Amino acid sequence: MPRDFHLDFHPPTAVKIHLISGNNSISQSGNAIFENAICTKLIQIINDRVNKRFELLPTKVPLAEASNFDVVEKIAEAEERAKRRTTGRRRLSSHRRSKRQQRRMHAFLRGFDWRKINALFLDYSMVTPLRITTNGIEVGTSGQISMAGVTTPFVAAPLALPNEAPKSMLTMIVSDFVPNTLMYHGHRVGLFNTKVEPRTPSLGPMMRTTCDLSTGSLFCLGDIFPTLRDTYPNKYLMLEFKTLHPPNMIIKSEKDGGIKFSVIGLITLTGLNGMIPTGNERPLGSMEINLKAKVDMRLASSFVRGKLTLEDIKFTTRTPKVLTQEELDDAGFLSREIMQRMVNDILKQGIPIPVHPLFKLSKPKLSLTNRAMVFQTDFDLNEAIIKQLTSANLRKS
């Protein structure tokens, strides 16, 4: 009898099955019978359990769940929904409802309003058939982030994998189409809208029209905009930012400038009578902002996160009696740090890497090419998930 069974992945060429025998006297016909028995069982398990369960998975995943997508839980939920369709039972279990609420709260605590982020979906669906080459197996997936029922008005630039033989198990090229779909649909749902008020950490003490030793702050927005200070003295301020157009990201190789980011938005300053907004305040002034920046990317788990360095910033007043254009022209340098922090808040949640949760990436490396990011990494298959997917009972394995 064989003492061990191995399913080994040998990058980049093949998946091989090895049967290791512990008894050299087993006849060739005995080996063939044993192999046929095991291979038949394997095929049955793959077809009747793994493939049927994968068919239940959605091709689009809520963006709020992209970083902690639970494959087994999603399949189990789909199986239970299928059972309810046949039995007429419609009620969600309290356990699954609680878990769903925890995920939404997790997204909220990470900085996004889950009511907005849950409107966006990351699409894992295949757009090209599997292709076997001398370098391995190639497949193209969508990677698009979108809203249900809303068409993205642009398409991805043509992509090609590097010609050289890969040194890592997995090479992935991600078009700048992916972050730009996030920017486009995120803009539509107001995902990047943000506010800074007196209670905001770090920037909060600056949210005043008047500041001196008695206020506990030696520098505030009133110093940048003296007409606002003179018109509305001793006011707390709330700064609200919203995008007027979808932000834009263009990726080039490092020698050609790297990653460029641009955004046009509207900043509204509202006067407050105290530290906490009541909802009854009225805007004092507003301005358009047009900024361009360079973005340095870093890998964090299954996300790419960016850090922005401003290259150009321009303000245009919409209320010249309160925010004069001359003051806004002078404010560019002084307000650079404030705006840099605000835009970094837009980018800090990151761009999800569209990798199936079945894979665990190991020390991925990132490089840039024209209109795309290239990831190279080794990976491990998630053994716990595979064990559950191949078991007869999905939840008890």
TrEMBL record:
Annotated region (Disordered) at 82-101
Q: Which domain of life is it from?
A: Eukaryota
> Which PANTHER family is this protein grouped with?
BACTERICIDAL PERMEABILITY-INCREASING BPI PROTEIN-RELATED, BPI2 DOMAIN-CONTAINING PROTEIN
Q: Which Pfam families match?
A: LBP_BPI_CETP_C
Question: Which residue windows does the record flag with biased composition (Basic residues)?
Answer: 83-101
Q: Which organism is it from?
A: Diploscapter pachys
**Gene Ontology CC: one annotated term:** extracellular space
Record-level Gene Ontology MF annotations: lipid binding
Where does the Lipid-binding serum glycoprotein C-terminal domain start and stop, copy by copy? 164-377
- The name on file for this protein is Lipid-binding serum glycoprotein C-terminal domain-containing protein
What InterPro entries does the database record attribute to this sequence?
A: Bactericidal_perm-incr_a/b_dom, BPI/LBP/Plunc, Lipid-bd_serum_glycop_C
